[in-house]
Write a structure and sequence with these properties.
- The protein is about 50% helix and about 10% strand.
- The protein is built from seven helices and two strands.
Length: about 140
């Protein structure tokens, strides 16, 4: 369960969690892997408020992810308008670090290989492309 985002540290941790493979996998398995709904986040079975105080290592990843997202903003045409989004595939070095830290805090570091396998089976996009825009 995700905590109220009014708590600053919890909001930062949620930012990391929501952009990683752990939440993506939960969304694919429990949701319909198309619609993003409130319950997808509210029912996540991990309470950020229970993290020990050593979660500060996660907090340090937030500016790295923000920078990576800024550097990987892409645009596509939608009804004739350029719409921006983030290519999170190009941000995976940061989100993968965060996901591994979350799994360590959950005492489940060996689960990482299963998330990697699932992600590799679900996502077939080549994120290595160097173009700025999708069109």
């Amino acid at each position: 369960m995700l905590p109220p985002f009014g708590q600053f540290l919890n909001g930062l941790l949620a930012f990391l969690l929501l952009n990683g493979k752990l939440m993506f996998s939960f969304w694919c398995i429990m949701g319909d892997d198309f619609h993003v709904t409130r319950w997808n986040f509210a029912e996540f079975p991990f309470d950020l408020t229970t993290l020990p105080t050593d979660a500060e290592g996660l907090e340090a990843l937030v500016p790295r992810l923000e920078n990576a997202m800024h550097e990987n903003t892409v645009f596509k045409l939608n009804a004739g308008k350029r719409v921006g989004s983030y290519n999170l595939g190009r941000c995976r070095p940061v989100t993968d670090d965060a996901d591994r830290m979350f799994l360590d805090l959950l005492k489940a570091p060996r689960a990482w290989e299963h998330f990697e396998l699932f992600y590799g089976q679900m996502v077939k996009t080549d994120f290595a492309a160097t173009g700025q825009d999708y069109e």
